[in-house]
């Protein structure tokens, strides 16, 4: 009789490590299912291989991980953020960025044979191109693939360079653009629901949650403050 929690045969590397996506321990089943849901059912091995390849800048094999990962505050935060984004009505860019940030951190820190990061020179023009595109299409549901392709960079290097040069992720930058325009529309007398749709949010509830998270107050109270000050 197979012992509960035993490793499935044929899934070990030569040094005894195993791929992250192969784990039969009951306590990790829900997390594995959640990861599959976040990736849209795509094989996690392919995702991890893609991340390793883009970090190294050349084809890389699927990374293997130690059976037990150490506690890591950053990795935990990125996983929780990825999980939260997957369960709320976030933009495609927000979902893509959260997934890519988590997997990049996981592979970069804990893969048994960590791929050496390709040294890339600062590419201000590529980031400026992405910023200009986001400013012109802030209300659109843009993907990370689109921005990376437009910039001529891999997804990994695009995310890293954009954050280094702008100070925030591309998804946060898009959200800031949407909210800046929303505040202008509200100040000009637009209704909250109309403002939400005009700036790329799904509905008034979706808009209200993001507005309060980033601005610190609800759209209704923001309108009240404008009326008082005018």
Mind explaining what this structure looks like?
The longest helix has 19 residues, at 92-110. This protein is elongated. Mean pLDDT is 79; it is low at 1-30. The protein has 230 residues and is mostly helical. α3 (73-87) packs antiparallel against α4, α5 (124-136) crosses α6 (144-151) and α6 (144-151) packs across α7. It is built from eleven helices and no strands.
What is the gist of this entry?
By secondary structure, this protein is mainly α. The chain has helices at residues 29-38, 44-56, 73-87, 92-110, 124-136, 144-151, 155-166, 170-187, 192-198, 204-215, 219-229. The model is unreliable at 1-30 (pLDDT under 50).
What keyword list fits this structure?
about 230 residues, mainly alpha, 11 helices, elongated
Layout of helices and strands:
Blueprint (H helix, E strand, L loop, with lengths): L28 H10 L5 H13 L16 H15 L4 H19 L13 H13 L7 H8 L3 H12 L3 H18 L4 H7 L5 H12 L3 H11 L1
Helix pairs in contact: 2-4, 3-4, 5-6, 5-8, 6-7, 9-10
Shape: elongated
Strand content: under 5%
Question: Total number of β-strand segments?
Answer: 0
Number of helices: 11
Global structural class: mainly alpha
- Pattern of helices and strands: HHHHHHHHHHH
Question: How far is it from the N-terminal to the C-terminal residue, by CA?
Answer: 77 Å
Helix content: 55-70%
Uncertain regions: pLDDT < 50 for 5+ in a row? 1-30
Most strands sheet: none
Q: Please tell me the overall pLDDT.
A: 79
Q: What gyration radius follows from the Cα positions, in whole Å?
A: 21 Å
